[in-house]
Structure formats: C-alpha cells, structure tokens
Amino acid sequence: MTAERLVIIGGDAAGMSAASQARRLKGPDELEIVAFERSNFTSYSACGIPYWVGGDVTDRDALVARTPQEHRARDIGLRMRTEVTEIDVAGQRVRAVDLGTGEAYWTGFDKLVIATGARPVRPALPGMDAPGVHGVQTLDDGQALLESLDRAPGSRRAVVVGAGYIGVEMAEAMLKHGFDVTVLNRGEQPMATLDPDMGRLVHDAMDGLGITTVNRAEVTAIRTGSDGRVRAVATGDASYPADVVVLGIGVEPETTLARAVGLPLGPHGGLLTDLSMRVVGHDNIWAGGDCVEVLDLVAGRTRHIALGTHANKHGQIIGSNVGGGYGTFPGVVGTAVSKVCDLEIARTGLREKDARAVGLRFVTATIESTGRAGYYPGARPMTVKMLAEYRTGRLLGVQIVGRDGAAKRVDIAAVALTAGMTVEQMTALDLGYAPPFSPVWDPVLVAARKAVTAVRRAGTA
Amino acid sequence: MTAERLVIIGGDAAGMSAASQARRLKGPDELEIVAFERSNFTSYSACGIPYWVGGDVTDRDALVARTPQEHRARDIGLRMRTEVTEIDVAGQRVRAVDLGTGEAYWTGFDKLVIATGARPVRPALPGMDAPGVHGVQTLDDGQALLESLDRAPGSRRAVVVGAGYIGVEMAEAMLKHGFDVTVLNRGEQPMATLDPDMGRLVHDAMDGLGITTVNRAEVTAIRTGSDGRVRAVATGDASYPADVVVLGIGVEPETTLARAVGLPLGPHGGLLTDLSMRVVGHDNIWAGGDCVEVLDLVAGRTRHIALGTHANKHGQIIGSNVGGGYGTFPGVVGTAVSKVCDLEIARTGLREKDARAVGLRFVTATIESTGRAGYYPGARPMTVKMLAEYRTGRLLGVQIVGRDGAAKRVDIAAVALTAGMTVEQMTALDLGYAPPFSPVWDPVLVAARKAVTAVRRAGTA
Q1: What is the 3-state secondary structure (H, E, C) of chain A?
Q2: Is residue A152 scored above 90 in pLDDT?
Q3: Predicted pLDDT of residue B460
Q4: pLDDT tens digits for range B247-300
Q5: Do A416 and B414 touch (CB under 8 A)?
Q6: Which residue of chain B is at minimal alpha-carbon distance from A341?
Q7: What range(s) does the FAD/NAD(P)-binding domain occupy (chains A, B) (predicted)?
Q8: Minimal CB count within 10 Å: which of A94, A125, A446, B161?
Q9: Active site residue B47
Q10: Per-residue pLDDT band at B151 (split at 50, 70, 90)
Q11: What is the mean pLDDT of residues B372-387?
C-alpha cells in the first residue's frame, strides 16, 4: 500500500493546523503531507503584529507558534519560499515555483487543502508604494515598519489609514512609539463593525487618548518628498503631514488560484465550503482560514471574516476529516474583540444595518454600567447595546465599549446567540457575581432587561 | 377603592428590590407598601464587606445601594429597627416589635413578602462570643471587626475559620491589614465549592501569597486570656495563636418565622417557592433571597445559595408579580466567582460529587492555558476543569482557577449549561479572540476539546 498524499497550499494557521491534526491521526506510512509556503514563516500570529510593533511583545519569534523545523520534525514535508502558481483540479496536481531558485514543478495530490489566506486591500493611489508606507499583515511587514519608525525624523507624525481593528490597534502602537497619531477613517465613525452610536464612543475615547480621528476622510494620494519618502496623506479636502503611514484598510480573500480554475466563490470573493470545510462540489479539496466564507448563523448568509481563531478551528476540522475522523464548523456569530490602549471594544451578532439587510425587524437597548461593583476600586463605565428581534425577542447582537472587563463579556452574548436565546431568557442567566468582577446585575443582564422592555413596548405599539 | 397593603419582612436586597419594582408598577393609591427591617441599614452589599474591611472600599456607606430615606422618598413605608416576630397566615397579619421602644403591634397584609435572609452558622463552642471573634455578615459586623483590628496588639495574628468564599476573601482582607493569616479549613482543601483537585490549586496559590491554610482542621474552642479577649483557636490537635478571629463558616436560611407557622421548607431549610417566587401553597405570600431554596437546573433539585445577585433577581420578579406584571425565576446553574488577592476562582454547574449524588455518570477534562495569548505581556496560567455527561457529552460543570481574566470566563459555561449544550457544541463557540484577551483557542475551548475526547473514549471503553 502506498501512502496517500495531502498537499496544502499555505503554511499559516489553517494550513498547518490541518497538517498537524491530520498527522496526529495518520502516520507517514498512511499519509504523506506536503505543504507549500511562499514566505519565510509558518504558523504565526498576524493578530499579534500590532503588539510586537507597539513594543508589548519584544521578540518577533514569540509570534511564531511553530517553526518550519518543528513542523518538519513531525513528518510534514514543508517547502518554504515556494509559491503554488496553479491548481490542476482534474489532474490532481499543483504547480509550484521555488522562489529562491526559480525552479517550477508539478506535485500530485490525493487530497488538497487551500489555505491561501487573505491579502490586504490596497487602493491604487499615487504614492502607495513609497518608502514609509506600510501594511501590517505579515511579519516582514512588521519588521519593515519597525525599521521605518527608527528612521523617522524628530517630528514623528504617523497617519493610520483605516479605523477598523487593525487601524485602532496600530494607532495605539504608534502612540507607544511617541508619534503624533492621526487616523483617517472613510466611514461615519471608527470601528465600522459597530453601529455608529457605539463607534462614536470609540471616537471620543480615542480623542481622550490623544489620537486624532478624522471621519469621512477618503484618501486620494500619498504625497512624497524629493527623496521619494512619504511626506503627507491627502484626502479630498485636506493634507495630513506624515513621517510614516500605516495601512489598516482591511483584507480580502486570496483566491486567485481558486478563481482561475473555477472553484466556487461566494459574494465576498471567498471559497465556499460545506460544514466539513470541503469545497462545494469537490470531494477531495478542502479550504479554510482567511480564504473562505463562513456561515453567519444569525443572518443566515455567508460572510468573510479574517480571524486567526476561525482559521485554527478550520484547520483542526480539515485535519480531522482528511485524517479519517469527522468534524464540522457550524458557522460563526461574528464575535470580535479589540482594544485601543485601555479601551475595550467588542461585538457579536448583527448590527442594525446587518439586521435590516436580511430583513429582520428589531428593537435596541443601550445601557451604561460598570465592569465591577460601583463601589469597588477601578469600576469604570461600560456601555452595552443589545439588538433583539421584534416580537420574538430573540437576541440578534451585542456591542460593548468600555474599560476593564468589557471585551470578553461579549462571550456571554456569543453563547446566547449560538443557543438562540431570547433576551427574556438572558435576564435569568446565572452569571458570575462578586464585587471585583461585576455589579450585582451584570451589565449584560441590565441590557437584557432593558431589551425585554423594548420588545414588549414594540409588540404592543 | 382602598389600596391593597403589601407587607415585606426584611429590608435588604430581595425585600427592597421587591418593594421598588412593585412601586414602579403601582402607585400609593393602589398599593401601600410596609417594610420591616430590624437593623439600621437597607439594601446593602454584604458581598462587599470583605473589600471594605480590607480597605479597598474606604467608605462603609458606599456599600449601601439605597438608604431608608431614599426608599421612603419613593412611598415605601419603611420601619427600621423593627423586627417581625410572628406571621399569622390565616389572619393575614404580622406582629412586629419596635426594637427602640419595645412596642409590639400587629399589621395586616393583603400580600406578604418574606425576605428574612440568612444567618451565619455559629457552632456552639467555648469562647465563640469572646471579644475579638467576629462574623462578617452585616455592616455592624464589619464595623466591629475594623475596630477590633485597630485594637489588636503588635503581634497581629489573624485566624480565619472557614475556607469558602467569605473565608478566602477575609484572608485577603486580613493580609492587607498586615496580619499573619492562618485559615482553618474543615475540609480536604479550601474552596469546597470546587473539586479537591481544583481546591488544591487555591491552596498552593494561598501558600504563595503568604496565607497559611490548615486543612482538616476542626475547631474545638476559642481560647481567651484573662482579659476575656481571644488568644488562640484550638483544633483537635493544635492551637493557633490569634489576636483576632474571623468566622467565615457560611450561612443558613433564616426561616424561623416561616417554620413556626408551617410554611413549606426544603431539605436545606429554605422556603420553597414556585418559579414566580410564590411560597408553595400560598397565593398571597412570596419569598426570595437568602431565605429560599432555588432550583438547580443542572442537578434538578433545590439548593440553598446565599448570593446577592439571586436576591436581586428574586426581588425584581416578586415586585413584578405583586405589582400586576409577570416574571419567573427559572433557577440557577450554580455560578460563583471570587478572588484571593490576584488569584481568581470560579465555578458553575456540578462538581464530581454533585454529579454522583444525583446519579449522573460523567467524564472530566482538565487543561492548563493562559488568559491571553502566550506571548502577550501578563499572560498567566489558568486551569480549567470541565465535567461532561457520559455518552451524551452534555456539559455538567466547569471550574476555573487562575489569574487575570479567569473568573468571568465561567460565564461562557454558565450560558452553555443554561442552554443544555454538549461539550462538542462548545468546541465551535465563536468566542472573542485578540491577543490581549485570549489565546487563539480560548481556554474554555481547549477544555471542551479535551472533554470531547474524554466522552468519545469513555463511550467506546
């Protein structure tokens, strides 16, 4: 009996989790594993880059969960700096190029995992490639940015383009390097993953932290000096001096290879899979991580969410299925947490516009409370917004902005959403209470009580 | 039309929440509210006493959520320092004594709320009433203890009797006053609300904090000096020098009045109510807070849990029902959180012995992880233990011991228990992930994955 060959395209979270889990279930005599990675790194935490750049994490290598050597020691045939350029679906083979030697070759597969990740959105604007303009998606990006910061002149002005998770996290990182920080945000408020009323709270808090946020700012050009280095970022009606520019505009699924051979893509450009993470219509091809779309369990449609925690779950499930076990990824409820300095930001489920987009009628309730008993030292304000379905009262979403202990409280709502709870059921939840950890009514319970009232009022109106 | 009269026995969380909520729904022309409270305080946070004694909270009045004056301003006829000594169920009246004047009188009711709370367990041992021996259930207790600490001699040795929530919290408080602290614990390990293997972690951490914990220590006497003040605490085989003794042995339902007139009590001595908090068999009598038993939704039997968060919910529900609305308290899953210095302790659902007691077969999984990404500053160990039902994999309980961010993670399990989730369903939970808040696999997910493996193994064994 010859071993089957599993080929993996992409050596980061999804791909290498799949490899590791498959190897746990099947030894090399049963399953040969070949993984292609075009960069110099495997299995690293892209989510950790803002904290490395900001200096919280001092060692780049700490972000690497598992090195190529560690993978190879577990009988995973890893080919670094090797880029897959073509998939031959019918012929069950992939073409790869060794980026060092230029050598190109075909490798056959019995099973294929596509884990090509996401690529940063880069608007085609003048000056986008100028020295001093930096993305922060890869470790190489982070290294280049850190070197650029060292070279920045005394004025130390940073412009961050984009006010989503990466944007606000990078604003904090730049602040920690002593830069004057301006965030240019295309939307109405920062953190477009929140409703604007909650985004407004983030804006105000960023003001308080000394970060200038400019909303409705559409970047039109990066201006450079005579040395070619960045000097300013231009918007329609203003110009913001910059010694360094950080691009935190977001990412899109990297599905060039898949698109070229007609694999099924969703409305957001990500690969479509079934719940076992098999590419729809292809029994021997799986896909996971930032290159796929995931089912939004609250909205009942697919979304693209680039997040390491999903990628790891996908990889683990793919590895189980490839290795002869069985696992499924039922979908997401859209949970995300972040912070800017000590301000914590969290969301799960649907925003108002998401609910409207899928035709759900809803009520909202917003409350202010604290993360600890009001009399306990360090009790600081927390705002919780809750969306519930009109009449039924089914929980639709929660957004939280606050300080100590705000962010992970969203997990309460994430589980309640998964379970399909109503806000009335949530009012009875037996949540942990002690003065250092919560008021006697947890803020989530207070929001649920107000949401119940809103549901009842709307139902009788 | 004359107003109905609502009589409330007990002016703390449950009683005054009921009063407030009833008043919100019905004005004084419809409902007269008379509340009897034997102490000098209303609506105070007993859970906050350890933090006031320890100095985290400097102002005693901060623990009072609402003063008698504030209640009276809302048309609640509050009679302070007045103790109800008898309930006449058939006659629909209560007898009360003004503790100041000694005057006794009967007051009729249309509706009655019993919110008599709990009383501390006080073993009948020699020396129990000596100066320097203190309970910590009431604000007066706390005040007396603080005064005793001021009078303690230079040696400053404190013995805490009991190693449950109050015991460990008071150990921290004594430590903050510069005392040498010894905790005498009757059980195998501190925190008997955890399984002993998890209690062991608390023990080790308390050692590390400089708190001496003596397990299997049965107190036999409090020894006093010639001045009558406490000198030592004696156990069967040892004597522990003490300048101050704090009793944290626990509480039992205060149901003397109810018992005297044959109201239904459960196996733990607490009043039995239906889900609307009506005393079983009595249409016009409600009960809530520390004097009732609550339904344990996981074990399917009643328990006695003295906790402010339940008392507040009970009061709110009673007030709704008395006021013409409708609410129910479905029960608890047994969530509790606490801390000793920076060590966080949390539990929900069943311990091993609880599961055995109700005849449930189970498997366990224990994992170690961190509350943040391993590379993020301040990532510290966290141990999560999970119990799942044999074969079905239904979640039965979770215990967590760790540092930053450990305690409130138990809320994830509390919601999952309420929803009846299996540990396999939990592995797919979309929990908040970002490096400052969680590893890419949240510790609860890691525990769920290990529990799935344990369920599968046990099922095929």
Answers
A1: CCCEEEEEECCCHHHHHHHHHHHHHCCCCCEEEEEEECCCCCCECHHHHHHHHCCCCCCHHHHECCCHHHHHHCCCEEEECEEEEEEECCCCEEEEEECCCCCEEEEECCEEEECCCEEECCCCCCCCCCCCEECCCCHHHHHHHHHHHHHCCCCCEEEEECCCHHHHHHHHHHHHCCCEEEEECCCCCCCCCCCHHHHHHHHHHHHHCCCEEECCCCEEEEEECCCCCEEEEEECCCEEECCEEEECCCEEECCHHHHHCCCCECCCCCECECCCCEECCCCCEEECHHHECEEECCCCEEECCCCHHHHHHHHHHHHHHHCCCCCCCCCECCCEEEEECCEEEEEEECCHHHHHHCCCCEEEEEEEEECCCCCCCCCCEEEEEEEEECCCCEEEEEEEEECCCCHHHHHHHHHHHHCCCEHHHHHCCCCCCCCCCCCCCCHHHHHHHHHHHHHHHHHHC
A2: no
A3: 76
A4: 999 899 999 999 999 999 999 999 999 999 999 999 999 999 999 999 999 999
A5: no
A6: B436
A7: 5-313
A8: A125
A9: yes
A10: confident
A11: 96
Chain B residues whose CB is inside 8 A of the A307 CB are 433
Residue where one domain finishes, among candidates A225, A249, A273: A249
Q: Tell me the residues of chain A between 431 and 450 that have a Cβ less than 8 Å away from chain B.
A: 431-438, 440-442
Task: Assess whether A22 and A75 both reside in one domain.
Answer: yes
- Predicted confidence (pLDDT) at residue A461 exceeds the cutoff of 80: no
* CATH number of the CATH domain containing B173: 3.50.50.60
CB contact under 8 A, B418 and A425: yes
Contact status of B25 with chain A (Cβ, < 8 Å): no
Q: Is residue A127 part of a domain?
A: no
In a domain, A451, yes or no: yes
Best of B430, B433, B437 to disrupt the A interface (most A CBs within 10 Å) is B430
Contact (CB<8Å) B339/A437: yes
Segment 303-342 of chain A within 8 Å of chain B by CB: 307-310, 312-313, 328-330, 332-339
Query: B358 and B308 in one domain?
Result: no
Residue A432 has its nearest CB partner, among B13, B410, B419, at B410
| Number of independent structural domains in chain B | 3
Among B3, B25, B47, B234, the one annotated catalytic: B47
